[in-house]
Design a protein that fits this description.
Chain A: It holds the Pfam family ADH_N. Chain A: This is Alcohol dehydrogenase-like 7. Chain A: Its cofactor is Zn(2+). The complex is a heterodimer of chains A (389) and B (388). Chain A is of the alpha/beta class and 389 residues long. Chain A has helices at residues 8-11, 56-63, 111-114, 177-180, 186-198, 213-224, 238-245, 262-269, 284-293, 317-323, 337-349, 368-376, and strands spanning 16-22, 31-37, 44-53, 78-86, 98-101, 140-142, 147-148, 160-164, 168-170, 205-209, 229-234, 250-253, 276-279, 300-303, 312-316, 326-329, 359-364, 382-386. In chain A, helix 12 links the parallel strand 17 and strand 18 (382-386). In chain A, helix 5 packs across helix 6. The longest helix of chain A is centred in the middle third of the chain and has 13 residues, at 186-198. Chain A is globular. Chain B is 23% helix and 23% strand. In chain B, strand 11, helix 5 and strand 12 (249-251) form a beta-alpha-beta unit. Chain B has helices at 55-62, 176-179, 185-196, 212-223, 238-244, 261-268, 283-292, 316-322, 336-348, 367-375; strands at 15-21, 30-36, 43-52, 77-85, 97-100, 139-141, 146-147, 159-163, 167-169, 204-208, 228-232, 249-251, 275-278, 299-302, 311-315, 325-328, 358-363, 381-385. With 388 residues, chain B is an alpha/beta fold. The chains are: A alpha/beta (389), B alpha/beta (388). The A-B interface holds A 112, 115, 117-120, 122, 125-126, 272, 282, 284, 287, 296-298, 303-307, 309-331, 334 and B 111, 114, 116-119, 121, 124-125, 271, 281, 283, 286, 295-297, 302-306, 308-330, 333. Strand 16 of chain A pairs antiparallel with strand 16 (325-328) of chain B, so a sheet runs across the interface.
């Protein structure tokens, strides 16, 4: 990665005027405009973004008219960048460091962060917030002085952003930026879900509902764990060719099952249900299907997809008691950002973890709306946006 | 303990004996003479020594619609002596002391040979009216009418016939009025703590419902060194006995004032319990239990038997954003033939407490009294002695 001169002595402590892609109204194309980014406060860092990629969660909140949707906002949460300046009391990072911002906070100190059992930081609890976590305010204003909302504590669709140190991790600059940004959310979530949340064992059978980047990352993780059978379920048959590259061994087109419901097809294919099922879309009915497809006795269903607020899952109480299955939700695949992202970087550099196949498109910042179109139309996995091009 | 049966007198022949028959939902059981057919292949006929009443008997005794069914012989917690065996039975012989269990263990299928689950795939659990293999009954009344089985056991009878996969041989000299408890309730609770949840030392546990199952969960958690065991029940009389089983704090859900139960427990546990157990069988409580377990690693385990047809409804984003786990457990995750003897030994070694679970003992003729006591919440386990 090229060493980037940020001219830190010139901008440190001062507001920066730069370009950002601002969403002013739900579902409307982002507008590239000049904004002001305030200097980082205590416990924060200001980052110059190198690459950012579009994740479906950005699209969900882009379209969301009602709270927690809010506008005007700077979206984006998958990225890699270089620290331009640090606020007070920041010791673990300095200017020039290559960093990945992550939506999931990791303070590395609280009982949860220091425990192996959880990645839910209790000092900086995760929430879909319009602000920065420490003081509940924004560092962004437009040129008219109007406050712009943050997104998932990251807001990477901007040449510069301010992020809490709980939401940043330092990484080896040797990893290409158009691969590093993927580890910020989608790929880590999927790989982590297989590896950490589910703890897929060699020889297991896995079913993945939804073959977007998350689902394919689950497949990649399951492949690395030695799963013997990886069944991909999707309504888009074009995903099946792509899926093979990620280790998917069998495909089910849920729209082509005829009279049989998907759950019956899968129970037959797996001789009684899969060891692990992953829901990677964010639809209650699919989670219920996933639960029905995991094996009685030890089947585990992992929820990764983000559904609409208010969506409810329904299970038969009788079945919950009698089938011995487990249901668990997972944020960021159960991974601890500050400990685990570096491990994933190493595994990519060692050529174990494959990331290249996730990047199907690359565009310059000016063309960010193209990334949205491609994803909405189901034509891309990850579209990487280069800020400097 | 009763003396060894003289073999050969009843072998291969039907036995006429007394049973407590439920003829209509919710109506007192009638002690009447019934015919118990000899055991077929892979089956064992047992002379019951002691049996105890569990709430699941009551749930299905009251049930008007399927899977409720009448006339039926209830009872599924028991201990007995083998009177005779059918063909192909090598595991037990006449005179052996055995505990029948509602959950089968064939020891051969992928599940039984795995340590990940106790839900035998070859003889799956179901709310059956019959014997497991051929789906017929071994009971008829004196008019020749078929009487339905319950949970593959039907212990409210002087003699019953049970499949070998539903039987655990007991070598330990454990008193019968303690051994029968291991057939269902106590094992379920202890198993839930040890096996399903795997409660670790210094953890925090919240138990919803302080019946025998809930108290057995507490006992299991206590033996594992849990540091805080919270008992949630509306019946404050349970609190004294709860302390014996290791409960450290009590919450009466009707006494939470402005706060919700989840708020109270989240405060007491500084963010939620490590493990929550639902031990009543009420969907609302299952929801509460889920809300009371800790974000990140909290585990909620459902043990209570709800009415068929009820649904658990959980908010999707809450599950995603909480990292909590939900699971159900039958028999606490224990494998009966493997684990019941371990619990028996633990009792004989004075580790596992069982004595305080038995609050009443009575003879077979008074069985309806046991039903009344349990429905009124005035007992834990009533042990019924068949021979008194």
């Amino acid at each position: 990665m090229a060493k980037n001169s940020t001219g830190s002595s010139e901008t440190a402590g001062k507001p920066i005027r730069c370009r950002a892609a601002v969403v002013r109204k739900a579902g409307e194309p982002l507008v590239i405009e000049e904004i002001i980014v305030a200097p980082p406060r205590c416990g924060e860092v200001r980052i110059k973004i190198i690459c950012t990629s579009l994740c479906h969660s950005d699209v969900i909140f882009w379209k969301l008219k009602d709270p927690p949707g809010c506008f005007p906002r700077i979206l984006g949460h998958e990225a890699v960048g270089i620290v331009e300046s640090v606020g007070e009391d920041v010791h673990e990072l300095s200017e020039g460091d290559t960093v990945i911002p992550i939506f999931l906070p990791d303070c590395a100190e609280c009982a949860d962060c220091t425990s192996k059992k959880s990645n839910f930081c209790s000092k900086f609890p995760f929430e879909v917030s319009p602000w920065l976590p420490r003081d509940g305010t924004s560092r962004f204003t437009d040129l008219k002085g109007e406050t712009l909302y943050h997104f998932l504590f990251v807001s990477s669709f901007s040449e510069y952003t301010v992020v809490d140190t709980a939401n940043v991790t330092k990484v080896d600059p040797a990893i290409p930026p158009n691969r590093a940004c993927l580890l910020s959310c989608g790929v880590s979530t999927g790989v982590g879900a297989a590896w950490r949340t589910a703890n897929v064992e060699a020889g297991s059978t896995v079913v993945i509902f939804g073959l977007g980047a998350i689902g394919l990352a689950v497949a990649e993780g399951a492949r690395l764990c030695g799963a013997k059978k990886i069944i991909g379920v999707d309504i888009n048959p074009q995903k099946f060719e792509t899926g093979k590259k990620f280790g998917v061994t069998d495909f089910v087109d849920s729209r082509s099952c005829g009279d049989k419901p998907v759950r019956q097809v899968i129970n037959e294919m797996t001789n009684g249900g899969a060891d692990y099922c992953f829901e990677c879309v964010g639809m209650a009915s699919l989670v219920e299907d996933a639960y029905a497809c995991c094996r009685k006795g030890w089947g585990k269903t992992v929820m990764l997809g983000v559904d609409k607020p208010g969506a409810e899952l329904r299970f038969s109480s009788f079945e919950v008691l009698h089938f011995g299955k487990t249901l668990v939700g997972s944020l960021f695949g159960g991974l601890k950002p500050k400990s685990d992202i570096s491990t994933l970087v190493k595994r990519y550099m060692n050529k174990e973890l494959q990331l290249d196949k996730f990047v199907t498109h690359e565009v310059g910042f000016e063309d960010i709306n193209k990334a949205f179109d491609l994803l909405v139309e189901g034509k891309s996995l990850r579209c990487v946006i280069w800020m400097d091009k | 303990m009763a003396e060894k049966q003289v073999s050969g007198t009843t072998d291969g022949k039907p036995i006429r004996c007394r049973a407590a028959v439920a003829r209509a939902p919710g109506e007192p059981l009638v002690i009447e003479e019934v015919m118990v057919a000899p055991p077929k292949a892979h089956e064992v006929r047992i002379k019951i020594i002691c049996t105890s009443l569990c709430y699941s008997d009551i749930t299905f005794w009251k049930m008007k619609d399927p899977p409720g069914s009448f006339p039926r012989i209830f009872g599924h917690e028991a201990i007995g002596m083998v009177e005779s065996v059918g063909d192909s039975v090598d595991e037990v012989t006449e005179g052996d002391i055995v505990i029948p269990q509602f959950l089968a263990q064939c020891r051969e299928c992928a599940v039984c040979t795995s340590n990940k689950s106790n839900l035998c795939a070859k003889f799956p659990f179901e709310m059956s009216l019959w014997m497991h293999r051929d789906r017929t009954s071994r009971f008829t009344d004196l008019k020749g009418q078929t009487l339905h089985h319950f949970l593959f056991i039907s212990a409210f009878s002087e003699y019953t016939v049970v499949d070998i996969t539903h039987i655990t041989k007991l070598d330990a000299e454990i008193p019968p009025n303690r051994a029968c408890l291991l057939s269902c309730g106590v094992s379920t609770g202890v198993g839930a703590a040890w096996r399903a949840a795997n409660v670790d030392e210094d953890s925090t546990v919240a138990i919803f419902g302080l019946g025998v199952i809930g108290l057995a969960v507490a006992e299991g958690a206590r033996l594992r060194g849990a540091k805080q065991i919270i008992g949630v029940d509306t019946n404050t009389e349970k609190y004294e006995i709860g302390k014996t089983f290791g409960i450290t704090d009590f919450v009466n859900p009707t006494n939470c004032q402005d706060k919700s139960l989840a708020e109270v427990i989240n405060e007491m546990t500084d963010g939620g319990a490590d493990y929550c157990f639902e031990c009543v069988g009420l969907t609302n409580l299952m929801h509460e239990a889920f809300a009371c377990c800790r974000k990140g690693w909290g585990k909620t385990i459902v043990l209570g038997v709800e009415k068929p047809g009820t649904q658990l409804s959980l908010n999707s984003l809450v599950i995603l954003h909480s990292g909590k786990t939900l699971m159900g457990s039958l028999f606490g995750g224990f494998k009966p033939k493997t684990d019941i003897p371990v619990l028996a030994k633990s009792y004989m070694d004075r580790e596992l407490q069982l004595d305080d679970f038995v609050t009443h003992e009575m003879k077979f003729d008074d069985i309806n009294r046991a039903f009344n006591l349990l429905m009124e919440g005035k007992c834990l386990r009533c042990v019924i002695w068949m021979d008194k």
